[in-house]
Design brief:
PDH/Transketolase; Rossmann fold; Transketolase C-terminal domain-containing protein; Transketolase_C; Transketo_C/PFOR_II; 5-stranded mixed sheet
């Protein structure tokens, strides 16, 4: 909130409910437009924003049990997007997945897709995970909706494994 207060120009700040798990164990070096690396890995990069970030860390832990090392980036700002962090992921990992509690059109996934398309890095596997191009027609708890829209930890792990299986010769459980 301090960064937003000091920002000159329009800004949008999304707050999550109280009681959500703490993601940052220490106060991060927060800069608008700069991703925060929460976990290092060289197989796949998971880029998330907002309340789904805790799930993303749990996904990385489950992938590690399958011998898949996941980098986790907290992309707290979509505009400006940290294109440098995205492009570094194309050099260091085999795939990128964006994860958001949002429609996949016009959000974090779209912004990352634009960076990838304009960079010419066609070798990287890429997937956007979020709400498909539809309106949310269900009502329930956050956990219920995560399950309904395949945003649960298990749902995301499954999609990550499928993506890597489709492009890699390694055997994945």
């Amino acid at each position: 909130t301090r960064a937003v207060a000091g920002w000159t120009g329009p800004c949008y700040l999304r707050l999550v409910r109280t009681g959500d798990p703490i993601v940052h164990q220490a106060v991060p070096d927060f800069q608008i437009g700069k991703a925060i690396t929460l976990r290092n890995g060289n197989d796949i990069t998971l880029i998330a924003s907002g309340g789904i970030l805790y799930n993303t860390i749990q996904v990385a832990k489950q992938l590690e049990q399958r011998e898949i090392k996941a980098r986790v980036l907290s992309m707290h700002t979509v505009k400006p997007l940290d294109a440098e962090a995205v492009l570094a992921a194309t050099q260091d990992t085999e795939a990128i997945i964006t994860i958001e509690e949002h429609n996949i059109i016009g959000g974090l996934g779209s912004a990352v897709a634009e960076v990838l398309a304009e960079s010419g890095n066609s070798h990287i596997a890429f997937k956007r995970i979020g709400i498909t191009d539809s309106f949310c027609s269900q009502v329930g708890s956050q956990e219920y909706l995560w399950n309904a829209y395949s945003l649960s930890v298990e749902g995301i792990v499954s999609k990550a494994v499928q993506l890597l299986k489709g492009m890699s010769k390694r055997k994945l459980a």
